[in-house]
Design a protein that fits this description.
By secondary structure, this protein is of the alpha/beta class. Helix content is 38%, strand content 25%. It contains 9 helices and 10 strands. A 6-stranded mixed β-sheet has the order 6-7-8-3-9-10, with helices on both faces. Strands 2-1-4-5 form a 4-stranded antiparallel β-sheet, with helices on one face. Helix 4 packs across helix 5. It is globular, with a radius of gyration of 18 Å. The N and C termini lie far apart (42 Å). The relative contact order is 0.17. Bound molecules: adenosine-5'-triphosphate. Keywords: ATP-binding, Lyase, Nucleotide-binding, Transport. GO terms for molecular function: lyase activity. It comes from Kosakonia pseudosacchari.
């Protein structure tokens, strides 16, 4: 491919001075994982919402496969979110349907891409449950009966079943126990490579960023203060704020 999957150009959205993000630009290529890191309140989630078509930004443009995202109709953006894109929320129940079984949560996304045959849908849902290490015997159970780690794995299965090109993740391992987190990270890393997924991931955890992201944007008070390859940014941070972030992790 000779063009980026996603181009973000001079994007801004401010709720109030210093609250939101300002003048953010970057490109994302197929198969690339971009981590957005920075302290709480630096505008990471607001930025993620704007680039994933869930918040109309005040300024700037986003192009997805050379098409202006906000020149598309609302219906087209919604279709993208149901098919070629995925969104993994920090709190899994925000990204799952509580009243629908685990299998139904996965099958629903398949149906959005045209699958109609009940037996096939169920078989693929079972396969995905097992891929994300949920016993397929739980296929008819409601997600609310699952542990937090299982819910997060179900949310990942629901998003990836349509083989999306681009997935947005907001603190995908936040709020989970350390051991559950480590297994989930391994699983995610494997899936990202295997499916050649492009990912934009918000995290305040530099360990998660190091494991998953190829490139990082470091945000402070709504502005990108540094960007580059993950190893370069974390091993040789140039901006004093990045240096502070990295050293505060080392001291912990
Ligand atoms: N809907 C909103 N209306 C007004 N202000 C908002 C709104 N959403 C977020 N903010 C403010 O914008 C700033 C950026 O918030 P945002 O959630 O994007 O930061 P963040 O870096 O993701 O932080 P965290 O890691 O704590 O989630 C914060 O000061 C927040 O209070």
């Amino acid at each position: 491919m000779t063009q980026p999957l996603l181009s973000v150009n001079h994007l801004s959205h401010l709720y109030a001075p210093g609250k939101g993000f300002q003048d953010v630009s970057f490109e994302l290529w197929p198969g690339e994982v971009l981590g957005i890191v920075g302290e709480s309140g630096s505008g990471k989630t607001t930025l993620l919402n704007a680039i994933s078509a869930r918040l109309v930004p005040q300024h700037g443009t986003i192009t997805y496969q050379a098409r202006d995202l906000y020149a598309m109709s609302e219906a087209e953006r919604r279709r993208l979110l149901r098919t070629e894109w995925g969104v993994v929320h920090q709190h899994p129940l925000d990204g799952l349907r509580r009243q629908v079984s685990a299998g139904g949560n996965i099958g629903e996304r398949l149906m959005a891409t045209g699958a109609r045959h009940y037996g096939d849908i169920r078989a693929r849902a079972e396969q995905w449950l097992s891929d994300v290490e949920i016993p397929p015997s739980r296929i008819d159970d409601l997600p609310t009966t699952f542990s937090g780690g299982m819910q997060q794995r179900l949310q990942i299965a629901r998003n990836l079943v349509t083989r999306p090109k681009l997935v947005f993740m907001d603190e995908p391992t936040g709020g989970l126990d350390v051991s559950v987190q480590a297994r989930l990270l391994d699983l995610l890393r494997g899936l990202v490579v295997e499916m050649n997924l492009a990912v934009v991931m918000v995290t305040h955890d530099l360990g998660v960023a190091r494991l998953l992201a190829n490139r990082l944007l470091v945000m402070k008070q709504g502005q990108v203060v540094e960007s580059g390859l993950t190893d370069r940014v974390l091993d040789d941070p140039h901006h004093p704020y990045t240096q502070l972030l990295v050293s505060s992790v080392l001291q912990n």
